[in-house]
């Protein structure tokens, strides 16, 4: 028994006769009749009875029709799935990512995506998460990867990685620091006011009972590390920013470290592009509980 036998059989039943089935299949009627006879010989049962009004199914034919239509449904589902897969092989995805993405191996994931979908071109830009989300809302980006500071009803959000806050000082510092209170008298280097890291610093120092002396604000987490390495000040940073290539600094694990928001993948609710979904599924499947989708309402 071959698949074409089942296709011809289902067509004869659906069109209530051999002539209409042949027309629908774009073949000659004798070919349809021959396929049905071959199917009956192979199975050793009669499936159809010709009548003046068309055809009637035998009990065996009824059972085979039930299974055949299940097979046809699976074939159609497979066709649709492969069509979606093929559509994802072409396109252009614009990605915005913050410099801090936790333990998410973003470069490796993008390389894997390109190997899987060579027909999809990628554009990657960097920035602070609020600015990137504004660009996502304006349809200037397709995907944003960065810290989830607060729910935003404009986006579908899936958490993909964890992040932690550490204290960094220059490598000349011989201390083993475990509290931000121990550097209360020293200048801090931080991201600008309004950024998530700035908020973390202000909240943490307030809990420790002091206001930080911010010597310099910079838009780049990498610049924070560079400046701290010179001994200009200390900083609270995301731990992942200390593991990338750059100037050496001393990393201090805090006993009561402030919470850092998880890293998330953001997409606009209005976008259903197949290539975008494929990229987000790959990233979400790589970490944090295989990508936890959040119901984001505000």
Automatic annotation (TrEMBL):
<dbReference type="InterPro" id="IPR050950">
    <property type="entry name" value="HTH-type_LysR_regulators"/>
</dbReference>
<dbReference type="InterPro" id="IPR036390">
    <property type="entry name" value="WH_DNA-bd_sf"/>
</dbReference>
<dbReference type="InterPro" id="IPR005119">
    <property type="entry name" value="LysR_subst-bd"/>
</dbReference>
<keyword id="KW-0805">Transcription regulation</keyword>
<keyword id="KW-0238">DNA-binding</keyword>
<comment type="similarity">
    <text>Belongs to the LysR transcriptional regulatory family.</text>
</comment>
<dbReference type="Pfam" id="PF03466">
    <property type="entry name" value="LysR_substrate"/>
</dbReference>
<dbReference type="InterPro" id="IPR000847">
    <property type="entry name" value="LysR_HTH_N"/>
</dbReference>
<keyword id="KW-0804">Transcription</keyword>
<dbReference type="InterPro" id="IPR036388">
    <property type="entry name" value="WH-like_DNA-bd_sf"/>
</dbReference>
<dbReference type="Pfam" id="PF00126">
    <property type="entry name" value="HTH_1"/>
</dbReference>
<dbReference type="GO" id="GO:0003700">
    <property type="term" value="F:DNA-binding transcription factor activity"/>
</dbReference>
<feature type="domain" description="HTH lysR-type">
    <location>
        <begin position="1"/>
        <end position="58"/>
    </location>
</feature>
<dbReference type="GO" id="GO:0005829">
    <property type="term" value="C:cytosol"/>
</dbReference>
<dbReference type="GO" id="GO:0003677">
    <property type="term" value="F:DNA binding"/>
</dbReference>
<protein>
    <submittedName>
        <fullName>LysR family transcriptional regulator</fullName>
    </submittedName>
</protein>
